[in-house]
From TrEMBL:
Regions crossing the membrane: 9-31
Any one GO molecular function term: phosphorelay sensor kinase activity
Domain of life: Bacteria
Keywords recorded for this protein, A-Z: Kinase, Membrane, Phosphoprotein, Transferase, Transmembrane, Transmembrane helix, Two-component regulatory system
Species in which this protein is naturally found: Sphingomonas panacis
Enzyme category, top tier: transferase
Catalytic activity as recorded in UniProt: ATP + protein L-histidine = ADP + protein N-phospho-L-histidine
Domain Histidine kinase: 567-785
Protein name in UniProt: histidine kinase
Kinase keyword on record: yes
SMART domains, sorted: HATPase_c (SM00387), HisKA (SM00388)
Length: 785
């Protein structure tokens, strides 16, 4: 290759290289442009898809009012075709209302001038759609100078939701206002704490409880209702509720209006981290609960002291309480009962101890008793007849809490007593029916309740009439014809009223028309009734009449006898006086001197005359003193000389019988008011009685003393004594003969006379004697009478 050809070859290679480079660049640029065009087409399609699927329609409003809008806008506005100009948005056929169209046009004009975006909601007249239009100045890339881009959203659903939410917000506001008013008016303190546990809101009751002017004052001053401080005090429940997000309930004390109260505090966590709270005053509830507890303890203590057995079962049918009588009646160990056995086990244990009634179907019987727990209609009562003659009255009372209270009353003794009472009633009825008396029992209202056959026959009453239980006035009307004096029938009603109403026992006598006599008596009975009795006294009345007649005859005979004795006594005094006078003349020698024998005879005559005269005087005194109180002289009598004089008068008789005579007259005998003659006769009669009853060598004592109220005279001897029969008749006139000094029988008038004279002075005389023990007679004479 020559030198000229090398450069050309180099040049050709260079040109070829340049052409290759240019072709490569052109190919690269073409491929890139193609890729960019493909990407642009893809972006255009993606943007078109986004526009088609976008919830908003893009509308370009140009400066001259022309609209670049999709056809769908016409559908949304209710127009037949998409609007081409801004003025087409409002028309007679549909679109926007003139007001909305004018407002939108003003917003668009303002955006064209100032570039300020806007947003407006409008409604289409020709459709039910609500549209939201947002506008902004068009970018330069849109090639719409002075234009505005409108984004039209279909906000029908959104506006409906907004309206619904607005209604809910309004309802929530109303509910909040109501709730706020309710909280303010609540009769309990209520409050709200923020997340920092500070009070944020309280009600008026809270403010009143903490003595704040108003709720705002209580919140501002942070006044706590509960006592204590810090998180461990009133805030403990609120902190626990916030941290655990659970309701906290706690009983805490508080002082409200100067009174100590117990509150149950509720702390409720809120979603915002705060805690709401309220307090319920449970002071009365606590006191009631304590009272109920004390009542329960008292009730159980009372039940434990009852004689009836008591067992209480809880809602789980386990034994919760029993008393000692229950354990004793059923013979169950207290250790076993203390384990709270179930109801069925208790029944089975009773059956094992042979303390249940004999039943064929025990499971069925037990099921029926188990139904007591859910029984309605009050207490259930039944009788259990146990082996061995034990009789139990069982009362089952269902309890409000689902438990059961059982009471077992041992009525064995009552049943036995009732049986005995029934027998007694039958005996009483038989006795009542067979009594000789006519009997009738009247109630407090005057009605005849019970009568015997004698009562019916006596009044001749019909059984049918008596079966009506007539009143006493009706019965008296029926009985009146049976009486001799029908008006006396009213006595029946008076006696019944006295016994039933006045509760007094009264009686009376009536004569029947047939001549019979009856005694009536009405006796009040313990049950408020009255017993009316009638006794036939006809025979007794006849006997009394005969005895009365005989007594009158005897009294007349006694008066004749007394008169005869008195007359004879007076008649005897005349010959005794003559005998005494002539004997004294013979003794004095008027008839000549008497020898010794004649003299002794004359002395014997004089002594006998003296004794006979004394006897006649006693008889006269006795017959003249037959009145209730013999007449005596009333004067002051000194007993000391009077008693000594009486002793001296009896002394010769004592000496002749060789007796020891002891006289003890004390100065305390003093003075009494009475008849000195009669008092001296009393002492002499007592002494003569003692002399007659004392054998020779015996001892007689006269003792006289006294005190401020009475004088006492005691005459005693150690003679043979007297039998009880003789003592009983010692003061009866002519009842028991006495003995003379020679052992001769004589009338015993001394003691009857002494008794009459002592009683005439208002005194008493007492004789005590036993055979072989002597006799003692005591006389008491009052100082003033």
């Amino acid at each position: 290759m020559n030198a000229t050809g090398v450069p050309e070859l180099v040049l050709s290679g260079a040109v070829l290289a340049i052409l290759l480079i240019a072709a490569s660049w052109t190919l690269y640029f073409g491929l890139r442009t193609r890729r960019e065009a493909t990407a642009s087409v893809a972006d255009q399609e993606r943007l078109s898809a986004l526009l088609r699927t976008s919830p908003a329609l893009a509308v370009i409003v140009r400066a001259d009012g022309r609209l670049d809008a999709p056809d769908q806008l016409g559908d949304w506005l209710g127009l037949a075709a998409a609007p081409r100009y801004l003025a087409d948005l409002a028309s007679e056929a549909g679109g926007l209302s003139p007001r909305d169209a004018d407002a939108l046009a003003a917003e668009i004009a303002a955006a064209q001038k100032s570039g300020r975006p806007f947003s407006r909601s409008v409604r289409a007249i020709g459709s039910s759609r609500a549209l939201m239009i947002r506008g902004a100045k068009a970018a330069s890339e849109l090639r719409a100078p002075g234009g505005v881009v409108l984004w039209v959203f279909d906000a029908t659903d959104d506006l409906a939701e907004i309206e619904r939410l607005s209604d809910e917000v309004a309802a929530a506001h109303r509910a909040f206002d109501v709730l706020t008013g309710l909280i303010q008016a609540a009769p309990m303190p209520m409050w709200y704490r923020g997340a920092d546990m500070r009070l944020a809101m309280v009600n008026s009751h809270y403010a009143d409880a903490v003595d704040a002017a108003d709720p705002e004052d209580a919140v501002g001053r942070g006044l706590e209702l509960l006592e204590g401080g810090g998180l461990g005090g009133p805030l403990a429940g609120a902190v626990a509720a916030r941290d655990s997000d659970r309701l906290q309930v706690k009983a805490m004390p508080a002082t409200i209006k100067g009174e100590r109260r117990m509150l149950r505090v509720y702390d409720v966590p809120m979603p915002d981290g705060g805690v709401a709270g309220f307090a319920v005053d449970i002071e009365d509830l606590e006191q009631a609960r304590a009272a109920i507890k004390r009542l329960g303890e008292t009730e159980r203590a009372t039940l434990d002291r009852l004689s009836a057995g008591v067992a209480q079962f809880g809602a789980d049918r386990a034994l919760s309480f029993f008393n000692q009588p229950f354990q004793r009646i059923f013979g169950i160990e207290s250790e076993w009962l203390a384990d709270s056995p179930e109801f069925d086990r208790v029944l089975e244990r009773m059956r094992e101890g042979n303390r249940l009634p004999e039943v064929r179907d025990f499971p069925g019987w037990k099921a029926e008793r188990r139904a007591w727990f859910v029984a309605t209609g009050g207490a259930i009562e039944e009788q259990w007849h146990l082996p061995g003659g034990v009789h139990l009255r069982v009362v089952a009372q269902p309890l409000p809490d689902g438990g059961l209270l059982l009471i077992f009353e041992d009525r064995t003794e009552q049943v036995q007593l009732a049986s005995g009472l029934d027998t007694l009633l039958r005996v009483r009825a038989a006795t009542f029916e067979n009594l000789f008396e006519a009997l009738g029992v009247f109630a407090a209202d005057g009605r005849l309740q019970i009568w015997n056959n004698k009562f019916r026959m006596l009044w001749d009453l019909d059984e049918a009439f008596l079966a009506t239980h007539p009143r006493v006035d009706a019965l008296a009307e029926k009985a009146a014809p049976r009486l001799a004096n029908p008006d006396r029938a009213a006595l029946i009603g008076e006696l019944v009223r006295a016994a039933t109403v006045e509760r007094q026992q009264r009686g009376g006598q009536v004569r029947f028309a047939d001549g019979r006599y009856f005694e009536f008596a009405a006796v009040p009975l313990p049950d408020g009734n009255g017993l009316f009795t009638m006794l036939d006294t006809t025979d007794r009345r006849r006997i009394e009449t005969a005895l009365r007649d005989r007594n009158e005859a005897l009294e007349a005979a006694d008066r004749v006898k007394t008169s005869f004795v008195a007359n004879m006594s007076y008649e005897l005094r005349t010959p005794l006086t003559s005998i005494s006078g002539f004997a004294e003349m013979l003794s004095a020698g008027y008839g000549g001197k008497l020898n010794d024998t004649a003299g002794s005879y004359v002395e014997a005559i004089l002594e006998s005359v003296q004794r006979l005269g004394a006897l006649v005087d006693d008889v006269l005194d006795l017959t003249q003193s037959d009145g209730p109180e013999p007449a005596v002289v009333r004067e002051e009598v000194d007993l000391v000389p009077l008693a000594r004089g009486a002793a001296r008068a009896v002394a010769p008789l004592v000496e002749r019988r060789t007796l020891e005579f002891v006289v003890e007259v004390m100065p305390s005998a003093g003075i009494v008011r009475g008849d000195p003659k009669r008092i001296r006769q009393v002492i002499e009669h007592l002494l003569r009685h003692a002399v007659v009853g004392t054998p020779p060598g015996g001892r007689i004592l006269l003792h006289v003393d006294g005190d401020s109220s009475a004088a006492r005279v005691v005459v005693s001897d150690d003679g043979a004594g007297m039998t009880p029969q003789a003592v009983a008749r010692a003061f009866d006139r002519f009842a028991e003969p006495g003995l003379t000094r020679d052992g001769e029988r004589a009338l015993g008038l001394g003691l009857p006379l002494a008794k009459q004279f002592v009683e005439a002075h208002g005194g008493t005389i007492e004789l005590m004697s036993e055979p072989g023990e002597g006799t003692a007679i005591t006389v008491l004479l009052p100082r003033n009478r």
